[in-house]
Write a structure and sequence with these properties.
- This protein is α+β, with helices and mostly antiparallel strands and 744 residues long.
- A 5-stranded antiparallel sheet has the order 10-11-17-13-14, with no helix packed on it. The chain has a 4-stranded mixed sheet with strand order 3-4-6-5.
- A hairpin with a 3-residue loop joins β15 and β16.
- α11 packs antiparallel against α25.
């Protein structure tokens, strides 16, 4: 290979090496073996949701089991359908496999998965920008700049590392764009690259944050339409490519997508209206383009001051695709304001799927990626910028902008120097932005004169990286200065171990409002009626959160035996059997004196025709939960009031399989403290029997007089169909990849 031919490859290797070094620098406190220097992701959703669910996923998969149902949170939930569980997300399986080789599931395992996705994000953005600016002399520099901006800007380093599903879903956006870009390079669409884009889009959906993947899906469709239009590709080819893109994405993720859609229709999220879903950025958040941290603890709109300059250059010079990405950024900013702008009021009614999602500020994903791409286009276009007058005018505008930032910083200093406690932080932010803008002006002035000089290219990337990493590294909202081993303990604390030691009394639940909290029921395999998963079945949630703290009705219906509480007395007779502490103070472990068993027979029933009626009836203080069962349909068996109570014994209990032995002298209704949900099947003496609905969301089954064995199995049709479709899709994609490699 000649020296000329090897030069581009050497530049790519240098750029990738630079991205790797920046990644190691940014996360060095998560990697270092020196205990005194270590940091870890702070507790919150990362620990309470993702680490806990990951532990349950690890436990089941390493035993060769697919976790379809999770009995340990929310009173029981379809785990396969909870999007943030990411049961079949391939990188999670890699994390689980490596954890198994290392000796078990740890807090750090998921931290490393997070850091790997940040690196992946930057590398994929580099690949996209290299292909987008392939004919430009500064293509390598443009790709490197865009990668640093998206990897270490305010969006990626803000809440996504803690909301891990957000980060992992976003990381596949650049690969989706690569597939579309390569597929439309010629007048005839290359469907192999459309399949690649669909595969990347499917991985995004599998990562577990549907709102982020929904944004990416709309962007992918728009980008495909734009590329086809700019290349003058026929509308018939566009429709074919669009259909293939959707089919591949659906096929890849059908195994979790189909159960997820089914679950969503049964959750409390489905009933939320505009008021609950219209939240977004306040208008003042716009200033965080320049002053990160001045409005909120995270600044997802912040891409760095040099990036704003090059984005403006791309727009001003009308570089290829700059108008498209400007439009995406503008629409995303309007959408991110939520109900604070008229745009969302209109789009709420016009855009399919929008009604399912809260938190419109998450459109910052599109803002950050669009600005990073625009900045890359601006860097790539500088070498072609031969008009000296335009360069001079751009520097004049940037000088004025820098002067404005300096004046604002000085104004804050002199005007509010007497109130440093209130204005000191804001002055620090303003001063930093003014200093960065001044440094940027100095570097840009030199760079625009000789953009091909390697030292100046290095200085430009160093400036971008220095600014972003200085602002976002060790963000106090994300990191604690302690080792990961000092975060959520993988072994249960003593007060929780007390509950685990009671393993021979049959299945029961706890109320983990204190002491257990979050989704730690999944972490410690304690059946908790509570949880923080954003998706909660409507019926169970209405019962469990009828009274947020003290809820005897929920304790009864969900077979709660132990209550973790901050008080040493409850409204029901209990015995305090242990005591511990959590972050709020003392925790008392109560054992109810007369807990309801997991399964119980009834011989009388109240019939209701709606959930509202059932809840109203049960909320009546005169209602006796042990006397009658509340059914949503009349029983087909004739019941005898006052019949002698039969016996029920749970002989085996597993997440997806429950077996009971029943002995009753009269017809009865069996009530189970198990959420009523599609996919549960019942066999009475090996014969299929109907599952009825009781208590606005629990399972009931008619039992004729006699001795019986009842088996329940959770085997949802949505999972079976989705698994077959995904298997076919993955096999087809693997065959396509092997064929392509063989031909080349």
């Amino acid at each position: 290979m000649t020296r000329l031919q090897s030069l581009p490859r050497n530049k790519d290797l240098l750029a990738i090496g630079a991205l790797l070094l920046l990644w190691l620098l940014f996360f060095w406190r998560l990697f270092t073996p020196i205990a005194a220097d270590q940091a870890s992701l702070t507790q919150g959703d990362f620990s309470g949701q993702f680490v806990a669910f990951g532990a349950y996923q690890y436990d089941r998969l390493t035993r060769g089991e697919i976790p379809l149902w999770n009995p340990y949170n929310n009173g029981g939930l379809p785990f396969i359908a909870d999007t943030q569980a990411a049961v079949f997300y391939p990188p999670r399986w890699v994390t689980i496999a490596l954890s198994a080789l290392a000796g078990g599931w740890t807090y750090n395992a998921l931290q490393m998965e997070m850091t790997a996705h940040v690196l992946l994000y930057t590398l994929l953005m580099y690949a996209f920008m290299r292909r987008l600016t392939l004919c430009k002399e500064l293509s390598h520099l443009a790709a490197l700049a865009a990668s640093v901006i998206i990897g270490y800007g305010g969006y990626t380093t803000g809440y996504p590392p803690l909301q891990l599903a957000v980060l992992e879903a976003a990381a596949w956006l650049p690969l989706t764009l690569v597939g579309i870009l390569e597929a439309t390079r010629r007048r005839a669409i290359d469907l192999r690259f459309i399949a690649l884009a669909g595969f990347a889009l499917g991985l995004s959906w599998m990562a577990g944050h549907p709102q982020t993947s929904w944004f990416i899906s709309y962007l992918a469709a728009a980008y495909l339409a734009y590329c086809c239009h700019s290349r003058r590709i026929s509308w018939r080819q566009f429709i074919s490519a669009f259909i293939l893109l959707g089919l591949v994405a659906i096929g890849v993720t059908a195994v979790t997508l189909f159960p997820g859609i089914e679950y969503l229709l049964h959750t409390s999220r489905e009933g939320l209206g505009f008021a609950a879903k219209g939240n977004g950025f306040p208008f003042r958040d716009i200033v965080q383009f320049v002053y990160p941290g001045s409005v909120s603890q995270w600044s997802p709109l912040y891409v760095g001051i040099p990036a704003l300059f090059f984005a403006a250059v791309a727009i001003f010079c009308r570089t290829r695709q700059s108008r498209f990405w400007l439009l995406v950024a503008a629409l995303a900013i309007l959408h991110s304001l939520g109900e604070n702008s008229a745009f969302y009021h209109a789009s709420y009614h016009l855009i399919p799927g929008l009604r399912f999602f809260r938190g419109q500020e998450r459109a910052a994903l599109l803002v950050a990626n669009s600005l990073a791409i625009l900045a890359g286009l601006g860097v790539a276009g500088v070498a072609d910028w031969s008009n000296q007058a335009q360069r001079k005018r751009a520097l004049i505008y940037w000088f004025r902008f820098t002067a404005l930032l300096v004046v604002i910083a000085l104004g804050l200093f002199f005007a509010f120097s007497d109130d440093a406690a209130r204005w000191g932080k804001l002055f620090d932010i303003a001063a930093r932005s003014a200093i960065v803008a001044t440094a940027s002006y100095a570097v840009l002035r030199l760079f625009l004169r000789a953009p091909r000089r390697s030292p100046l290219q290095f200085a430009l990337v160093a400036l971008i990286a220095f600014e972003l990493i200085s602002v976002n590294i060790d963000h106090p909202a994300n990191y604690d200065s302690v080792s990961y081993s000092e975060q959520a303990p993988m072994a249960p604390p003593p007060v929780i171990q007390t509950v685990l030691d009671d393993a021979d009394s049959g299945p029961f639940r706890v109320d983990g409002f204190r002491g257990l909290r979050d989704n730690y029921g999944s972490l410690y395999t304690v059946m908790d009626m509570r949880g923080i998963s954003p998706l909660f079945l409507k019926g169970p949630q209405a019962i469990i959160y009828r009274d947020y703290v003290n809820n005897p009705l929920a304790w009864e219906l969900f077979a709660v035996k132990y209550v973790f509480s901050g008080s040493d007395t409850l409204s029901l007779p209990t015995v305090v059997i242990d005591r511990g502490r959590d972050h709020e103070g003392d925790v008392y472990l109560h054992r109810l004196e007369d807990p309801r068993p997991f399964a119980i027979l009834y011989y009388e029933a109240d019939i209701v025709d709606s959930d509202a009626w059932a809840l109203e009836l049960m909320n009546d203080p005169r209602y006796n939960e042990r006397a009658k069962i509340v059914l949503h349909q009349p029983p087909t068996l004739e019941l005898t009031a006052g019949a002698a109570a039969g016996k029920v014994q749970v002989t085996s209990f597993a997440p997806e399989e429950i077996t009971l032995d029943i002995d009753t002298t009269e017809n009865a209704i069996l009530s189970l403290s198990l959420p009523h949900y599609p996919g549960w099947r019942a066999l009475l003496n090996d014969t299929a029997t109907d599952i009825n609905r009781a208590y606005a969301g629990l399972i009931a089954i008619e039992i004729p007089a006699g001795q019986h064995r009842l088996s329940l199995e959770f085997a949802p049709l949505s999972y079976a169909v989705g698994a077959l479709i995904s298997l076919a899709a993955w096999l087809a994609l693997a065959l396509l990849a092997l064929t392509t490699i063989w031909r080349r």
